[in-house]
Amino acid sequence: MCALTLGRNGIHPTPVVLGITGLLALVGFGVVEARVRDPLVELRLLRHQRFRAATIGSFVLGTGVIATVSFVPTLAQTGLNAGIWPASLLVVVWSGTSVVTAFLSRLVRHPMTGPVPIAVALVVVAVGQALGFGVTTESSPWRLVPSLFVAGVATGLLNALLGREAVASVHADRAAMGSGANNTARYFGAAVGITSFVVVATHAGDDLAAGWNVAIAMSASISLVGAGAVALAGRSSRHPRH
Fold this sequence. Notes:
Layout lengths: L1 H5 L6 H23 L13 H31 L4 H21 L10 H16 L14 H24 L6 H29 L4 H26 L9
């Protein structure tokens, strides 16, 4: 995070050193996890398509739409001159819709499992994000409602899908590991995504609205690329044994 933040003004020794240090720490973590008897996460689980797809999906969800929505109040208040209540209610449109959708997903009779529904939901997320493109300083903050609503519907579906896949894709005695790995991927993605979104939005364009357009185009692209990555991750025919 420090490397991303400090690198916003160009490539300098400090962010480069921090970035390399972070990568080395990640490699070291992988080496240790592969050798210890009781690892935090079994890296071999990534060989299985459902676990791999769920992990990638959670990371992309955090990097994409969660990062986008986290910046909405800042855009509304600073870029569109909205008050605190409109800025707060905009986030409720997304979060409230996602909660309702996740709850109602239980009523779907046709089981939604595997990478394909995750990839489709990420595409819908990208569509919702794209609806938020084109904001200007003269725009009403309520212009973001359709974008947040569509993204919220897809996010709620993803919350239900990813949580179930994270547990169903591992052995029964590894359910906590599957859930923990999935949540870690989401929050790590959110940390990277929020940092990147803020850096781009506040440094691209002549004003915050222009920066928002650049950042949300980037974020929607991440969701689309992530959908493709999930689909590719599901091409393997290997499944874990229960």
